[in-house]
Amino acid sequence: PHVLPEKNTSLVGSSLVGPHVLPEKNTSRESVETAPPFSITRRLALGLKLCSWPGRTQVIHKDNLLYFLDGAHTLESMALCSQWFSAATRGSAVKRVLLFNSTGDRQSSELLSPLLDCDFHFVLFCPNIVTPEVSLAS
User: Fold this and answer.
1) Which of UniProt's keywords are assigned here (predicted)?
2) Could you give phi then psi for residue 68, rounded to 5 degrees?
3) Beta bridge partners of 40
4) Residue 2: which of 33, 34, 35, 47 has the closest Cα?
5) Phi, psi angle pair for 118, to nearest 5°
6) In sequence order, which residues have a C-beta less than 8 Å from that of residue 73 and are 6 or more positions away?
7) Using one digit for the tens of pLDDT, what is the confidence trace for 58-95?
8) Among the residues of the chain, which ranges form H helices?
9) How far apart are CA 114 and CA 78, in angstroms?
10) Which of 71, 90, 92, 136 is most buried by a 10 A CB count?
11) Residues 30, 32, 33, 39: is their CA dihedral positive or negative?
């Protein structure tokens, strides 16, 4: 068996702890006990190594454009997204465009606040409008 690499602990940890923490929306991270390290099989280690999570700190190269994608949807994940994007684009002279979408009852102004330091040149807001009709106007 292999010891679980540090970077993958969140994948296994969230699947183990998530169902128990989710019902308690006011549970702080500090109040959740840290589980002791455990061994995993070679097969699970390979699965974690090969795991791909598109839309999380994903960079797509297309022609002369770079797309930085992250599906952050909490204040904490937005802060991490902001740090990742800032580090990845530090020193770059290219135009930065933010395409922002939020679903559910999330507070967009709160979610956007960590992105203020990213120095975007343009910001586009993409609403959640779904219609059964497809036309040139839609």
Assistant:
1) ATP-binding, Ligase, Nucleotide-binding
2) -105, 115
3) 2
4) 47
5) -85, -5
6) 102, 103, 106, 111
7) 999 999 899 999 999 999 999 999 999 999 999 888 88
8) 9-21, 42-50, 75-89, 108-112
9) 6
10) 71
11) negative
